[in-house]
Amino acid sequence: MTSLSDRVVLVTGGSAGIGRSTVTRLAADGARVVTCARHGDRLEEAFGGLPGVCTTVADVADAGDRAALLDRVLDEHGRLDAVVHNAGVGWAGLLEDMPGESVEGIVALNLTGVVELTRLALPHLLRSAADRGRADVVMVSSVAAWSQVPPLTVYSATKAGVQGFARGLRREVTTRGIRVHTVNPFFVETEWLARGHGHPPVSGEDARGRLSRGISPDRVADRIGGLLRSPRSRTVTVPRWAGLARLGEAPPVDRVLDRLLSGNADRIRRIAARTVAERVD
């Protein structure tokens, strides 16, 4: 089952960035997409009237919202064929400078939300795999999962957790027809950094200065569309050369990074603060 036509796909964090590009791409390929975000006005701005797309307000970090989100998918379509875990947030700075609520929020959204929403969705995905031949879980991870570089220590930890979760889940469900994928981008042109530091979303031209430097979200969306057609579970990087980040886990590279980065903590702090200020001022 390689066609996306008529497949029911849930995409989290669909109002901007990678999520918005993914929803648009999948709908154009014939999928029936349900997407969510915390801000309903942005969802309406992005997808109001777009055929094949259903929107709902939900915070994936909230247990009640996760349950309501699954109910909305089933009420709308009666089944679920794939989940794309895109919603996520980051925070740039040293751990000692990080507010406790920011740590809790990043872990709740980037890791707990992914695990718990998958747990809720799994019975429906298994049913779809049995009835229709396949189902998919796609997790938007990061090259930071393999190369834990400050000032993104906590963010990197959550993405490493996502990688471990994906590997374990594959070993639970592969022979039952569910493909489990991760897509690991390098830096992407999105608002994730400004949002992670507590700044509300903005739209139109006002958003341009908020975007991090990086590749287009459309490139990541294209890979997600490809994964939903893949005959097997996969981990892919965008761009492909970003897979070199795996070397960050290998000796002696890991030991060199330990010494080099820890010896430049103050410089990293200053660079992180300047980068955030450029995105939110």
UniProtKB/TrEMBL annotation:
It is an enzyme of class 1 (oxidoreductase). Residues 7-190 form the Ketoreductase domain. GO terms for molecular function: 3-oxoacyl-[acyl-carrier-protein] reductase (NADPH) activity. CDD domains: SDR_c. The keyword Oxidoreductase applies. SUPFAM superfamilies: NAD(P)-binding Rossmann-fold domains (SSF51735). Its EC number is 1.1.1.100. It comes from the Bacteria. PROSITE patterns: ADH_SHORT. The keyword Heme does not apply. Gene3D superfamilies: NAD(P)-binding Rossmann-like Domain. Keywords: Oxidoreductase. SMART domains: PKS_KR (SM00822). GO terms for cellular component: membrane. Belongs to the short-chain dehydrogenases/reductases (SDR) family. This is Putative 3-oxoacyl-acyl carrier protein reductase (FabG-like). It comes from Blastococcus saxobsidens (strain DD2).
